[in-house]
Task: inverse folding
């Protein structure tokens, strides 16, 4: 079993664990909110909550949590790609030290530099794109809840 395969399996396990924890936390929060709502109805003198307003807040919270969860997942994927690219660059750098002729050293070093620059460009573009998507998503979410 290769290190990459082990890493993917480990990453999938952690992803599943975090999803289960998130679901359990959401369920627990919903149960607590429902209990508080029911208890407040039983107490005399407590105003009954306006369900439309509460539903709107809960819907916003749910969409916000979903957006944050998606952004965190995407960010984790970017970090994984960056880590993989760093390992590949390290391997290429070590290969350059094994060159036997000056021409081979130059060729391998040039290849390493090009690969490093391409990797940095790709990661920067990905981060900018994710930032733009996050801003768009949050703007749309705020616009929907305010109307």
Result:
């Amino acid at each position: 079993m290769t290190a990459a395969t082990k890493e993917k399996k480990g990453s999938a396990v952690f992803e599943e664990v975090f999803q289960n924890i998130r679901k359990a936390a959401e369920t627990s929060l919903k149960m607590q909110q429902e209990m508080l709502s029911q208890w407040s109805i039983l107490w005399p003198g407590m105003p009954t909550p306006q369900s439309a307003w509460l539903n709107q807040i809960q819907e916003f919270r749910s969409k916000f949590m979903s957006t944050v969860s998606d952004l965190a997942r995407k960010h984790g994927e970017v970090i994984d790609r960056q880590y993989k690219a760093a390992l590949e660059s390290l391997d290429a750098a070590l290969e350059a030290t094994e060159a036997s002729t000056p021409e081979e050293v130059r060729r391998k070093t040039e290849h390493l530099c090009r690969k490093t620059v391409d990797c940095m460009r790709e990661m920067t573009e990905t981060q900018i794109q994710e930032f733009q998507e996050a801003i768009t998503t949050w703007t749309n979410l705020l616009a929907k809840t305010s109307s």
In short: The longest helix spans residues 51-96. DSSP finds three helices and no strands in the chain. The radius of gyration is 25 Å.
